[in-house]
Backbone:
C-alpha cells in the first residue's frame, strides 16, 4: 500500500517498501546534512565517501516483507530505529576485552544473534527506484515551494541503496571523559588503523576494579544490571583485597626479614658451635706485657695471647666489648698473670696499679734532687728513672738504685747511650762526671721496662730524648748565632731556669748580648744549680762554692746545661728577640721581668721590685 504523492509506506524497525514508479516522478531533493556532533571528549572520525560508488543493490520485490496493517490513531507509534553512527560506542560484548591477568580465565563472549542474510544483487528491473537518487530524497514529503519532478526531468541519478542496520537494544556503558573512543563495528585491524594501536591503553586502569569484581563472582551481565547486583551482593567478610603493589612491597619486606634472621642465626650458631678458647680464674704467675702506641683491642688481645695471659685474643675482645676503658688503654708495660680468663684480664688491665715503668720528666728538672726552702725535695732525673724501673714480678723487685744509674753515666760510652754526635765531646769533658747527661734528657713521658739494666734503661731514654731535641729544631745544621749546638742547648737551659715563657725571647737576647760583649752573665740560676736549690737569690759565700758554674766570676757560658730545656726554650735560644738589653730583674708577681739597657736603670727597677715585695 502506498501513500499519496507516491511516497512509500514506513515500516516498523526502520525498513521501507519500494513503490511502483509513477508517470510523474518528483524531482530529487538535495540531501540533508547531518548536524555536526558536538565535542564531548570523544574522537570523531569522519569517513569520506568512496570516489566511485559500486553498483546499486536493489532488493527484490519477492524478498520484501509483507505490508503491515495500518495502526489506529489511538495506538502509540512504535519506537523508530536509528542508524548507528560511526562514533557511537559498540555494545559491551563487542568491545575488546581489557588486559587480564594470565592466571585468570577469560570470560566467554556473549552469544550474538546470527546476522541477516545479505541481499542478492540483480539487474535493474522496470519499476525500480531511479538510480543515483538517495533513499531519503524519495521518502520525505514534498516541501512547500519545491517543484515536483516531471517526466521530462530525465532519468533519476544513480544511487546506492542503503542497508538497514538493526537497532542496538543494549544501552552503551558510560565512558569516562578523556578515555579512548570505543572501537567501531568491524575488525580489529580497521579499529587500529583509525584510532591507533594504543587506544586500549586507557582501559588498563580498570584492571584492578575488574579483577576485584571477578574475585566476587561478577560477570558481564552483572555489570550491566547494577541494581540486581546490589541486591544479590554477598556480605563482605573483611576488608577488600589490597593492590598488587602493596602485596609486592610486603613480600620484599618479609624476604629481607627472613634473610636478616637467617644471617643472625648463622652467626650465632657459628659462634656457639666453634666458639673460642678461654681460661677460667684470675691467673697464676706474673708476666709483663707491652702495649704499643696505636694498638687496637684486637692487637692487645693478640699480645696477651702471645704472652700466655689469655687462651685466645677473642676471649679478651669479647670480654671488653662493653667496657669503654679498654679502648682508652695507653702504651706502656702492664703486669698481668698467666692463664687468666678474658673477663679477669680486662678487669686487671684497667686497674690503676697494673701499668708500670712510666715516668714523666718536666722542663726545669735537673739530674740531682732539689731541696726546697721548707726542706722538701723535688726529685731529679736520677730519682725519677729509678722509680720508673721498679716493679714486683713474682715477689722480685726490679728497681735500679740511683747510685747504679750515676755510676753508669760516669763510666759509659756516651755515644753508645745515644747522645747526639755534636754533644759527645763536650759532655764527656764535663767537670762533674755524674752530670754529663745534663740537658740531654728531653721533657716528656718515657716508658721504662721493669727488669732492664741501668745501661738498657739509659740507652732507651737518651735515644728517645735525642729524637725529641732534633724535633724541637736543634741540630748540627740548626744552632744559635755564632754558637755550637751544645752551647745553644746550654743557653736554652739557662733560659728555662731564669724566666717564664713570655720572657724567653728577651732573656735569650740578654744572654747573647752579654756573651758578645765579653760580660759575665751573673746569673743566680747557675750558682743554685750546683747548690741544688731552686731560689734565684744567692749570697757571696754561695758564689764561692759554685766553681766553674759561678757566672759572677767567670765569663761565658756554663760547662754543661743546667736543666731540662723545653722545646720553647730551645726555639728562643735559636732565635732570640731583637733588642739591646743587658739587664733584667723580676719585677712582677706573675714572674715577668723588667729589661733595661744600663746598670742605673737596672738598679732602679730592682729597688722598685723590692719596694713592692716582688724581689
Residues:
Amino acid at each position: 500500500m502506498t501513500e499519496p504523492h507516491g511516497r512509500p509506506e514506513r515500516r516498523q524497525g526502520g525498513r521501507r517498501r519500494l513503490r511502483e514508479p509513477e508517470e510523474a516522478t518528483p524531482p530529487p531533493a538535495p540531501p540533508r546534512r547531518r548536524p555536526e556532533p558536538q565535542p564531548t571528549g570523544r574522537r570523531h572520525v569522519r569517513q569520506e565517501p568512496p570516489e566511485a560508488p559500486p553498483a546499486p543493490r536493489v532488493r527484490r520485490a519477492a524478498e520484501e516483507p509483507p505490508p503491515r496493517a495500518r495502526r489506529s490513531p489511538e495506538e502509540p507509534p512504535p519506537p523508530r530505529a536509528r542508524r548507528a553512527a560511526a562514533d557511537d560506542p559498540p555494545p559491551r560484548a563487542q568491545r575488546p576485552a581489557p588486559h587480564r591477568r594470565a592466571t585468570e580465565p577469560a570470560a566467554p563472549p556473549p552469544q550474538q544473534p546470527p546476522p541477516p542474510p545479505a541481499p542478492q544483487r540483480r539487474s535493474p528491473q522496470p519499476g525500480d527506484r531511479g538510480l543515483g537518487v538517495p533513499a531519503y530524497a524519495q521518502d520525505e514529503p514534498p516541501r512547500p515551494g519545491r517543484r515536483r519532478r516531471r517526466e521530462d526531468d530525465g532519468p533519476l541519478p544513480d544511487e546506492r541503496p542503503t542497508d538497514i542496520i538493526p537497532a542496538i537494544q543494549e544501552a552503551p556503558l558510560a565512558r569516562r571523559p578523556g578515555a579512548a573512543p570505543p572501537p567501531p563495528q568491524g575488525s580489529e585491524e580497521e579499529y587500529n588503523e583509525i584510532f591507533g594501536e594504543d587506544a586500549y591503553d586507557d582501559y588498563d586502569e580498570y584492571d584492578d576494579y575488574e579483577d576485584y569484581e571477578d574475585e566476587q563472582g561478577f560477570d558481564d551481565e552483572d555489570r550491566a544490571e547494577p541494581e540486581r547486583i546490589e541486591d544479590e551482593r554477598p556480605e563482605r567478610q573483611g576488608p577488600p583485597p589490597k593492590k598488587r603493589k602493596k602485596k609486592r612491597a610486603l613480600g620484599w619486606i618479609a624476604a629481607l626479614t627472613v634473610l636478616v634472621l637467617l644471617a643472625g642465626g648463622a652467626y650465632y650458631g657459628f659462634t656457639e658451635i666453634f666458639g673460642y678458647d678461654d681460661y677460667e680464674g684470675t691467673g697464676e704467675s706474673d708476666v709483663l706485657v707491652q702495649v704499643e702506641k696505636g694498638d687496637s683491642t684486637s692487637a692487645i688481645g693478640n699480645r696477651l695471647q702471645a704472652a700466655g695471659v689469655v687462651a685466645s685474643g677473642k676471649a679478651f675482645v669479647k670480654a671488653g666489648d662493653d667496657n669503654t676503658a679498654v679502648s682508652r688503654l695507653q702504651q706502656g708495660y702492664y703486669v698481668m698473670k698467666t692463664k687468666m680468663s678474658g673477663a679477669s684480664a680486662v678487669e686487671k688491665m684497667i686497674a690503676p696499679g697494673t701499668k708500670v715503668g712510666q715516668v714523666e720528666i718536666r722542663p726545669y728538672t735537673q739530674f740531682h734532687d732539689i731541696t726546697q726552702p721548707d726542706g722538701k725535695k723535688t726529685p731529679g732525673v736520677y730519682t725519677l728513672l729509678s722509680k720508673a724501673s721498679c716493679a714486683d714480678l713474682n715477689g722480685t723487685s726490679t728497681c735500679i738504685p740511683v747510685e747504679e744509674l750515676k755510676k753508669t753515666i760516669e763510666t759509659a760510652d756516651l755515644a753508645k747511650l745515644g747522645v747526639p754526635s755534636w754533644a759527645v765531646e763536650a759532655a764527656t769533658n764535663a767537670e762533674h762526671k755524674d752530670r754529663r747527661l745534663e740537658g740531654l734528657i728531653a721533657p716528656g713521658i718515657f716508658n721504662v721496662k721493669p727488669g732492664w739494666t741501668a745501661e738498657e734503661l739509659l740507652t732507651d731514654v737518651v735515644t728517645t730524648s735525642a729524637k725529641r731535641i732534633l724535633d724541637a729544631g736543634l741540630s748540627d745544621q740548626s744552632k744559635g748565632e755564632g754558637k755550637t749546638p751544645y752551647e745553644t742547648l746550654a743557653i736554652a737551659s739557662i733560659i728555662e731556669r731564669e724566666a717564664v715563657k713570655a720572657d724567653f725571647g728577651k732573656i735569650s737576647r740578654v744572654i747573647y748580648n752579654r756573651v758578645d760583649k765579653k760580660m759575665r752573665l751573673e746569673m743566680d740560676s747557675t750558682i743554685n744549680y750546683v747548690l741544688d736549690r731552686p731560689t734565684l737569690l744567692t749570697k757571696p759565700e754561695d758564689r764561692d762554692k759554685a766553681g766553674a758554674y759561678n757566672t759572677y766570676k767567670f765569663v761565658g757560658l756554663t760547662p754543661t746545661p743546667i736543666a731540662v730545656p723545653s722545646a720553647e726554650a730551645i726555639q728562643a735560644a735559636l732565635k732570640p728577640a731583637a733588642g739591646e738589653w743587658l739587664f733584667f730583674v723580676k719585677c712582677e708577681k706573675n714572674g715577668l721581668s723588667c729589661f733595661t739597657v744600663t746598670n742605673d736603670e737596672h738598679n732602679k727597677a730592682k729597688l722598685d721590685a723590692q719596694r713592692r715585695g716582688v724581689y
